[in-house]
Write a structure and sequence with these properties.
Length: about 50
């Protein structure tokens, strides 16, 4: 199991911080939780291919 924190910022709107999001990869399963703005950008930056 691989857990990637894609954002750990604040749920409040703040241009300097990303909203929280967590990606869990377990075998063939890819789960995305609490995805806020910018999540897809962080997935690409982490070089994860969902």
């Amino acid at each position: 199991m691989i857990i990637t924190l894609l954002g750990t910022g604040t749920p409040n709107l703040d241009l300097d911080r990303w909203s929280p999001s967590t990606l869990i990869q377990a075998g063939e399963h890819v789960l995305l939780f609490d995805c806020g703005r910018g999540t897809l950008l962080h997935i690409k930056q982490a070089k994860i291919n969902p």
